[in-house]
Design a protein that fits this description.
heterodimer, A: 98 residues, mainly alpha, Histone, subunit A, two-stranded antiparallel ribbon, 3 helices, flat, B: 474 residues, alpha/beta, 11-stranded mixed sheet, 15 helices, 14% strand
Chain lengths: 98, 474
């Protein structure tokens, strides 16, 4: 069973707020799912190349140009943000100036 | 006039022969939705104005005797994880409850170009994570064949809409079975295309190496029409492929060889499902199709492999919902720090299954566990792909069940996440390998439909559709 501390650590990495009740719930649920993953221990794949997708992908590049349509869309996208200032997304300060 | 139970082909012919107008057709589907949707809850939002305006354009097209595309005037539903400009797109999540799509997904653009009528957005498991549509933040969809049972998921709203004649076709998305399994549960035809066949631009990402958009329809013929309309290269998506450049091998259906993987008929399958699938395969055999037993030895590892890879990708994809750029936000609350905005927005906005998968994925990717889980799963994925490559040297396609069980009762599995994951056992390998697969109705246990899965080689959608069509004519 994974520990309470581990659950809290993972939640912090995931930027996911948890209630105290949920910590216990996740301990139980994640442990039972991780137990199921133990199945993979039966198979030796040490000499196998990993696949990040189902087929070899190539980079597809485009020209780095400003498109009129895109800049119109940017304004629309900004309108969806909760807080903006001068065409930028606004966030709470993370650096303190002394 | 009541117009219902139409296929795309029948509706297209009806419009052309002026048996009904596009506006009448549209109205009759909207009326049925307003009568039935409360009970089935397949639609989250109805876009009456958009659909009626589109219908008007089609009627003008007909009266001016313009060439009519196949999908012109055909009412459809779109899963609520694909963008339709101006309509809400919620992914059935509280975190996107008030999010209005600022542009069209590529599939939406393609349907609009054909003048298909968009009736509304269909229900799903939150962010397409689930096998029952019970994980929608807005309430579960019911199976039209038995309202006490689930329609499957995650594209349960789309499959239920087509099965209940609330729409002639619908789009779904499939990351681990989300088009095929609800099609099996509702009795519709569902195609998960090859990875790269349909552009996912404008699809809300779940697991990007697995996600594919595809059609849910009443017949195989309809399925091909919708697939042909939405497929192809998209300059906005680097994974999409120009299908016309891929040479299709010539084949004669009489010489088609089909494999039945023995690992798909082991303990855990409902005997009734097994009987129906085996009798469907027998029908093919009786009609001269060559059937042989084959082996996909890594089948038992595919599910744990999938449930490491999909949540890992999801945990990265869903990092964007942070209360800063769009969607629900607690930035306005007096919380003093940026971190608090992230934590509280995501705590409030994401439902239980999404949180579980984010936790699982973050765990599998975290320092100290990466090699044991994520990297190992990627290596197992290579083995799963190799299995298919080997078997497809011998046979043209595979027959398997879509789901090991019949549609289950609402509430039956919701408390036990692992039992819900096990429902995906026959569908996830296809996504890991990026293959096309069709689910088509092949029988019923009482009133509950059962789907046969036909898995094909990469980009051989046409062949598996042809094989599926054979069954409709036996």
């Amino acid at each position: 069973m994974i520990s309470e501390e581990e659950v809290k650590h993972i939640a912090k990495l995931a930027r996911l707020g948890l209630t105290d009740k949920e910590v216990g719930k996740f301990q139980k649920e994640l442990s039972s799912i991780l137990d199921y993953f133990e199945k993979l221990k039966k198979i030796d794949v040490s000499d196998v190349e990993p696949s990040s997708r189902s087929f070899a992908a190539e980079n597809v590049l485009r020209r780095d140009e400003i498109k009129e349509e895109q800049s119109k869309r940017n304004r629309k996208l900004l309108e969806l943000a909760p807080e903006t200032k001068d065409g930028y997304l606004k966030v709470k300060p993370i650096i303190k100036f002394s | 006039m009541e117009i219902k139970e139409l296929t795309i082909k029948q509706a297209h012919d009806g419009l052309k022969k002026k048996e009904f107008s596009a506006a009448e057709l549209c109205k009759s589907y909207l009326d049925r939705i307003s009568k039935k949707n409360r009970e089935i809850f397949s639609f989250l939002e109805i876009s009456e104005d958009l659909a009626m305006n589109q219908a008007k354009e089609v009627d003008e097209m007909i009266s001016s005797k313009k060439e009519m595309p196949l999908l012109a005037g055909i009412p459809c539903g779109i899963k609520d994880n694909m963008l339709v400009e101006g309509l809400k797109c919620t992914a059935a999540s509280k975190i996107l409850k008030n999010y209005t799509a600022p542009y069209d997904a590529t599939v939406t653009k393609k349907l609009k170009a054909q003048n298909a009528l968009i009736l509304g957005k269909t229900n799903l498991d939150e962010f397409a994570m689930g096998a029952s549509t019970e994980h929608s933040a807005f309430g579960p969809t019911k199976n039209p064949n038995d309202l006490s049972r689930v329609p499957g998921g995650s594209s349960g709203g789309s499959a239920a809409a087509v099965a209940a004649d609330l729409s002639i076709f619908a789009l779904g998305s499939d990351t681990g079975g989300s088009i095929r399994q609800p099609s099996s549960f509702c009795g519709t035809v569902g195609l998960k295309p090859t990875y790269g066949a349909v552009s996912p631009y404008g699809l809300i990402a779940f697991a990007s190496s697995l996600d594919q958009i595809g059609p849910i329809t009443k017949t195989v013929e309809d399925c091909k029409m919708v697939f042909d309309a939405i497929k192809g290269k998209d300059e906005l998506d680097s994974t999409s492929v120009e299908l016309s450049k891929i040479a299709q091998a010539k084949y004669d259906l009489r010489n088609v060889r089909i494999g039945v993987p023995k690992e798909y008929f082991v303990k855990g399958i409902d005997p009734e499902v097994e009987k129906i699938i085996k009798s469907a395969i027998k029908k093919y055999e009786d009609n001269g199709v060559k059937i042989e037993e084959v082996s996909l030895p890594h089948t038992e590892y595919a599910l744990p492999c999938y449930y490491i890879i999909a949540p890992s990708e999801a945990s990265a994809n869903l990092a964007r919902y942070d209360g800063i750029k769009y969607g629900m936000s607690n930035a306005g609350s007096p919380a003093s720090k940026l971190l608090d905005v992230y934590l509280s927005t995501r705590e409030e906005g994401f439902g239980p299954e999404v949180r579980r998968r984010i936790m699982l994925g973050t765990y599998a990717l975290s320092s100290g566990y990466y090699d044991a889980y994520y990297l190992k799963a990627q290596k197992v994925r290579t083995r799963v792909i190799d299995d298919f490559n080997k078997v497809f040297k011998k046979v043209d396609a595979l027959f398997t069940p879509v789901s090991p069980i019949l549609p289950f009762k609402i509430g039956e599995k919701i408390e036990d996440p692992l039992s819900m994951y096990l429902v995906d056992i026959y569908t996830v390998s296809v996504n890991l390998a990026g293959l096309p697969a069709l689910s088509m109705p092949c029988g019923k246990a009482g009133k509950l439909p059962v789907g046969l899965q036909i898995i094909g080689k990469r980009f051989e959608e046409d062949k598996i559709l042809e094989i599926g069509k054979l069954y409709e004519h036996f």
